[in-house]
Design a protein that fits this description.
With 275 residues, this protein is of the alpha/beta class. It has 10 helices and 6 strands, in the order ββααααβαβαβαααβα. β4, α6 and β5 form a beta-alpha-beta unit. This is DUF3800 domain-containing protein.
């Protein structure tokens, strides 16, 4: 079984402005790599708290979870040492066979608030990343089933994902009518339905959350030129895990659209670090 565990996050390309870029993606694993990531998270978290409690990039989001289990001291420890455990996870993950696929979608200038077009943006960014998972699958020598596993959607609204997956699986195109170069997903061994679960219950989704959080910081540092960013450094650390490494990461692994000045900056930064 091959699985793609994916999640989303947002960023702004202009300081102080509303978020205008949606990132969607995560990691592809086989059964062996999935278990190795679970074991890695168990080992690292066991140094700080119960190994079955969750972590994520925006760790403050988990405060209530730790309070529920009476582990607020552990929460504070993990919060204060977040750079340490994040770095441990990324470094040790280098020995595991996984691939990263993320799509970044920058919305055009508009008077509409993000919340008014969010479902549409989610639909498009999911399609862009799912297309690349399909292409990845098309050129692999396997006959295994492929599952798409997503974090439970914000607002408990799975419709944008279900709609897009229906078109991708059955018709080989996006809900907007954009053809998938890989063809219908049903011909590539993909399961008939996308699956949802909670990030707090899945170590591999937690890893995807960390990877996409670090990728967000990589994009932000590239655009803004910050002096330091842990996420930037951690993305560099696992850059060879990105699909398309070393020469086609911007096309297959960390895609950015549209092809504007930010695309050019990110493409250049990826090329400079893909050594």
């Amino acid at each position: 079984m091959i699985k793609w565990f994916a999640d989303d996050t947002k960023l702004s390309t202009k300081k102080g402005d509303e978020n205008n870029v949606l990132l969607f993606g995560g990691v592809i694993v086989d059964t062996k790599a999935e278990q190795e990531l679970i074991d890695l998270f168990h080992k690292v978290k066991n140094e700080y708290t119960f190994p079955d409690l969750p972590v994520k990039w925006n760790f403050k989001d988990l405060k209530k979870t730790y309070q529920e289990f009476g582990k607020e001291d552990d929460y504070n420890l993990l919060l204060n040492r977040s750079n340490e455990w994040r770095t441990k996870i990324f470094k040790e993950s280098k020995n595991i066979n996984y691939r990263v696929i993320i799509a970044c979608l920058e919305r055009y200038e508009s008077q509409k608030k993000l919340k008014e077009v969010k479902d549409e943006l989610i639909n498009i960014s999911f399609a862009q990343s799912l297309m690349r998972v399909g292409l990845y699958a098309k050129y692999q020598d396997w006959t295994q089933r492929i599952e798409i596993i997503l974090d439970w959607p914000e607002g408990s609204n799975p419709k944008p994902f279900n709609r897009e997956y229906y078109y991708a699986f059955n018709r080989g195109e996006s809900a907007k009518g954009i053809k998938y170069l890989c063809g219908p997903l049903k011909n590539l061994g993909f399961n008939q339905s996308v699956y949802f679960t909670k990030c707090t219950h899945s170590a591999v989704l937690q890893f995807s959350d960390l990877v996409i959080g670090a990728a967000k910081d990589f994009v932000l540092k590239t655009i803004y030129g910050h002096d330091y960013s842990l996420g930037y450094d951690l993305t560099k650390l696992i850059l060879n895990k990105y699909n398309g490494f070393p020469n086609k990461i911007i096309e297959r692994g960390l895609n950015y659209s549209p092809k504007n000045n930010n695309y050019t900056l990110i493409e250049s930064e990826l090329k400079n670090n893909a050594v």
